[in-house]
Automatic annotation (TrEMBL):
Positions with a binding annotation for ATP: 130
GO molecular function: ATP binding; protein serine/threonine kinase activity
Organism: Oryza nivara (Indian wild rice)
Name of protein: Protein kinase domain-containing protein
Subcellular localization: Membrane
Ranges that cross the membrane: 6-30
Location of region: Disordered: 404-431
Entry GO terms, CC: membrane
Pfam families tied to this protein: PK_Tyr_Ser-Thr
Domain Protein kinase: start-end pairs: 102-401
Entry's family note: Belongs to the protein kinase superfamily.
């Protein structure tokens, strides 16, 4: 009996000892793993990537570009997918960008910030790679990261997504989602005999106008830190599947120096023709400069022409193409002849009365948006409600009272004085 009890005790001690050894081993493995993860994490921070690292610089751990830029390793691929899912901009090396764009083989366009190329991610997703002008080299990396971080955290269904960036010694670039239908200018102004672009009906244009306005409203009114776009124009309204609009290049004015296709004289921003008067005069600039540019975009949607077409002949709708279109619209409105504007906007329309009613709203909102005094322009929230028919639209005042007297023969706008007929009251929406 005593022997049996002794064996039982021994067996129990054996089991307990084995259990303790197993627990200690598991704890040791767990601690080692934690230390390893910490070391890995701090080494990736040493690659100074406060955002996410999509493979890092050329010295990184076999990134997407890796030693062989065309080969994607599965480890980095899962890291890459994780980064995308977490919706943080990824950092790419110049080598990776070269691989995505097949050595920059397909140029999509160029603008004031640089050149845009089409590329493809290893996952097969198409991307647009915007290689920024070299002037950016002067900018501190930290500032670049902070601003890219802000752009990357800005999400709206009507804003183009920033997937990542590159900040190498030689290449500074931004990687965006690719918008398959290109930019709105192509659909508004492409008048070649067999335009590649399909013709958009006014109802669709109205939808695009509302989507664009919602994006700018988000930047102005819903972001933690207000973002002024400074460059609203048809080239920066990109179209995706189903012609859904997304605004591009928000946040770039702060990030980049502009080329001289854009206003640079006094450090002013924007594109001539869309830039509000306060941007090219020594006046305080607020987010209302975007409302002005947005109004100019609405005029171009109504007229399906550039607001100013120098060198063109007489227009087909009773106005010379050389005439500044916004002013022509104002004078039609003032004379009670808005019908001429609406007829042009909805020409070849299938939507009948509905299109006309939407075009009329777009016309009135455009006239409000380009008021000379920023405080007389509506907020983008107002704009959305007016376009959607939720707010009554009061009759607009003359936005061009500060310009030289109107000549029916037509002329481009000439600023005379900074005075305006406006009395400053906010009667615009009649709310
Ligand atoms: N994400 C994108 N997807 C598809 N096409 C794009 C994308 N981004 C830009 N593009 C195309 O590339 C062209 C050039 O763009 P870019 O932004 O460099 O110049 P811009 O829009 O004409 O002027 P700005 O520099 O003032 O924005 C655009 O007009 C557009 O057609
Ligand atoms: Mg652009």
């Amino acid at each position: 009996m005593a022997i049996a009890n002794g064996s039982l005790a021994l067996a129990l001690i054996g089991v307990i000892t084995t259990g303790i050894v197993a627990v200690v081993t598991i704890v040791a493995i767990y601690k080692c793993a934690r230390i390893a993860i910490k070391m890995w994490y701090s080494s990736s921070r040493d690659h100074h990537t406060p955002i996410a690292n999509g493979g890092g610089s050329s010295s990184s751990r076999g990134g997407i570009g890796g030693a062989d830029a065309d080969v994607v390793e599965m480890g980095s691929m899962s890291h890459f997918i994780e980064g995308l899912q977490n919706e943080r901009p990824l950092r790419f090396s110049a080598r990776q960008l070269r691989a995505f764009t097949k050595s920059y083989a397909h140029k999509v366009g160029s603008g004031g910030f640089g050149v845009v190329y089409r590329g493809v991610f290893p996952s097969g997703a198409p991307v647009a790679v915007k290689v920024l002008n070299s002037t950016l080299g002067k900018r501190a990396e930290e500032q670049f990261m902070a601003e890219v971080g802000t752009i990357g955290r800005t999400y709206h269904i009507n804003l183009v997504r920033l997937y990542g960036f590159c900040f190498d010694a030689d290449v500074k670039a931004l990687v965006y989602e690719y918008m398959e239908k290109g930019s709105l200018d192509r659909y508004l102004f492409d008048s070649s005999p067999s335009p590649a672009a399909e013709r958009i009906g006014f109802e669709k244009l109205h939808e695009i106008a509302v989507g664009t306005a919602k994006a700018v409203r988000y930047l102005h009114e819903e972001c933690a830190q207000r973002i002024i776009h400074y460059d609203i124009k048809p080239e920066n309204v990109l179209l995706g599947a189903g012609m859904a609009p997304k605004v591009s290049d928000f946040g770039l004015a702060k990030l980049c120096d502009r080329e001289d296709t854009h206003l640079t004289i006094t450090g002013a921003r924007g594109t001539p023709g869309y830039a509000a008067p306060e941007l090219w005069m020594p006046l305080p600039v607020t987010h209302k400069c975007d409302v002005y540019s947005y109004g100019m975009l609405l005029f171009e949607m109504l007229g399906r022409r550039r607001n100013l077409e120098l060198g063109a002949g007489a227009g087909a709708h009773g106005h010379g193409s050389q005439e500044w279109y916004p002013r022509w619209v104002w004078h039609r409105f003032e004379a009670g002849e808005t019908e001429a504007v609406l007829a042009r906007a909805t020409a070849a329309a299938a939507g009948g009365g509905r299109e006309r009613e939407k075009a009329e709203r777009v016309c009135m909102v455009a006239l409000w948006c380009v008021q000379y005094r920023p405080e007389d322009r509506p907020s983008m929230g107002n704009v959305v409600r007016m376009l959607e028919g939720e707010d009554h639209i009061a009759a607009p005042r003359n936005p061009f009272a500060h310009l030289a007297p109107y000549s029916a023969a037509g002329s481009s706008p000439t600023t005379t004085t900074a005075t305006t007929e406006s009395d400053g009251s906010s009667a615009r929406t009649g709310r």
